[in-house]
Amino acid sequence: MRRSIATVSVAVLGLALITPGAAHAEPSPSGDPLSPADQASLAAGVGIAPKAPYGAKPKGPNPFLAEVADPAKVDYSGWVNYMKTQSQAKAAARLSAQKAAGKAAKAATPPVVVDEDELPGTSGGNDIPVNAQRITGYGTGSGQFSKLRILGSLDNETVSTPTVAPAPEDDGSITLAGATGIGVGTQRGAVINSQIGDGPHGRQTGDGSNDFDFFKITAQAGKTLTVQTATPTGPLDTVLQLFAPDGTLLAVNDDFGGLDSKITYQVPATGDFYAAVAAYGGLPADPFDSGSGGGIGDPTPPTEGPYTLTATSAGVDQDFFAVKLKAGDVIGSSVKGSATYLTVYDTVPREAHGSRQDASFIYPADSPLPAGGNAVTDYVATKAGWHYVGVATGSGAYDITVEAYRPVLQGAKPVQTLYLDFDGARVNTAVLGGAGNRDLSPLAAFLTSWGLTRADEDALIDAVVAGVTENIKHDLEASGLNNKFKIKIADSKNNADQWGKANVSRVVVGGTIDESGIDTIGIAQSIDPGNFETEETALVLLDVLSSPADSTPASLNTYLGPTSDRLAFVAQGLSNVIAHEAGHFFGNFHTDNQDELPNLMDAGGTGFGTLFGVGPDNIGGTADDVDVDFGDSTFLPAEGFVGTEDTLGRIVFGVTS
Fold it and tell me: What's the average model confidence in pLDDT over 520-535?
């Protein structure tokens, strides 16, 4: 059933609070040992895999679309950078297509332009949702305009940034942090020229465990800390972290429009903060221990070299605009110009989708949502009322596009069908990032690997179908959010092959990594807020899920014991993974697998037991197993979004009739 999480209604744009547990050495899902430093990096949402050159396509499947077995092998930053370049190309191609359409382009309704009414050169007039500039007449109803262009300006407090000499080494921990002077007397900013690699733990000058530079900043409540790096020369690829005095990680950033890094953090209470500069691939396991790095790295060592750090504690402008939506409205927003952070708040108001990136490349071709920009967001309104679009992190003019749509199946006779294919299939894996047509083996080929027999096949399929039906039909109906929600669940055992018919999306359950050519457990064709493309494919591969016990946390066998109901647990695990992949092409991103609430969109990695519904006894198929559902959860930190994702609400209106 539907879950919710407690939230605090504050307007803090771009603030991702990250409080990872203490890092400890443990194997990755592939069995390779991870150092405490690697554990800390992954817990902070920073990858440890070798990074592809900026804009180049990384190796492996797109992790935004895939349920990867081992996050340690994923180049998250590389995929974010690649998708940004591809999203810009997609936006340009769409514009060219519109121009080529000629008459259709001329007939297209132009956006209504609204100017920010905050006085030029000032801030504070529309900095929180309650003070948002209200835009009337916007919406998807008769007589309303559904395309909006907002022109405004971010006007920040001006702060001087004198050059400050770097602290002598060793400055690689909170207790050894160098002084910036910020917060002492009237000083509010600083520029420091320093270097990663010149300390006692650097690659060339020390023991090679990795060099870190920490800086102390004192800031007042209500101000915004802005910390950024610039590396005009040398190979250094920086990562920035911001710590509280007790070592709590408050914010982190790897790449910000390039390989340099930037953090903006709104100060909740006056006090000291500690900014840390490190190289990608080598964060500290313990911010109080300058020697807690994980080593040089192999085959691609962390980079070293010079950088310039600019830090300020000042008033920073952020602007909110209110639009009134109907339940089921699907809105997409993009921003160009100075602003690099874009967000949408729901009616609470609660941040629902904050972004400093453009991942619209993974929308399907039929999606009308905006693509291209410094940042792109999307949202499906679950309640009627005022919603809030906000921008921040920049200085000067910005240009926001906000477009609203109704679900494509609304009012139409066709019903969305979700078809589960257990018989093996020929799949064009090119739509999933693969090489083309591949033949995948059926579910039956994997039964013995779970200790089941051919005689169990029909019962297993029926149990899986029942689980998927509960996850993606009954729970959504019971939510009461949309009385027109309607979906048909069909399967290859009980129904004729549905694939190829109108409004049929499928999940193929079977096959292996070798057969598919895609190194993943599951993968979907797109993330489609609003379900504008109603005929998509996802895979749930079964080789890792049926691998020997304890070989990986991603194997269902790892959680089976003498007291387990094997058939029930295998069905439960499979139905959850199937619902997860369908959840992608019905509109959901990944959620955090380390927070307190299990969610069907939780990423895998070391959290597979949570996704499978394993209870506190850590044995699957027993009485304490958990019913994992769609609901509210924070976005997966590694994928860079901020806020609370309502994974049930994003589906329940896109799948409607």
Answer: 96
DSSP H/E element including 469: helix 457-469
Q: For residue 591, give the nearest of 530, 636, 656 by alpha carbon.
A: 636
Half-sphere exposure of 466 (CA within 13 A, CB side): 12
Two structure tokens written together for 379: 């949202």
Cα angle 534-535-538, degrees, rounded to a multiple of 5: 115
The reply to whether 178-314 shares the fold of 110-156+318-405 is: yes
Q: Which tokens go with 372?
A: 């291209």
pLDDT tens-place string over residues 452-470? 999 999 999 999 999 999 9
List the chain domain ranges: 110-156+318-405, 178-314, 411-652
User: 444-462 burial string, b = 16+ CB within 10 Å, else e?
Assistant: bbbbebbebeeebbeebbe
For 178-314, CATH gives 2.60.120.380
Contacts of 12 (CB under 8 A, 6+ apart): 266, 351
Instruction: Indicate the pLDDT class of residue 7, thresholds 50, 70 and 90.
Output: very low
634 by DSSP, 3-state: which? Answer: strand
| pLDDT band at residue 234 using 50, 70 and 90 as cut-offs | confident
Q: What is the DSSP string of 67-132?
A: E-S-GGG--HHHHHHHHHHHHHHHHHHHHHHHHHHTHHHHHSPPPEEEE--SPTT--SSSSSGGGP
C-alpha to C-alpha distances, 213 to 144, 199, 289, 304, nearest whole angstrom: 54, 9, 12, 12
Instruction: Give the single-character DSSP code of 473.
Output: I
Q: What is the pLDDT of residue 208?
A: 86
Nearest to 56 by CA among 233, 259, 232, 357: 259
pLDDT higher than threshold 80 for residue 18: no
Under 8 Å between Cβ of 429 and 423 = no
Could you give the 3-state DSSP secondary structure of residue 405? strand
Q: Which of 150, 533, 488, 206 is nearest to 364 (CA)?
A: 533
| pTM of the predicted protein model | 0.92
Tens digits of per-residue pLDDT, 241-273? 999 999 999 999 999 878 899 999 999 999 999
- The CA distance from 483 to 468, in Å, is 20
Tokens of 173: 């921990």
Q: 110-156+318-405 domain in CATH 2.60.120.380?
A: yes
Contact 493, 422 (CB under 8 A): yes
Cβ atoms of 394 and 383 closer than 8 Å: no
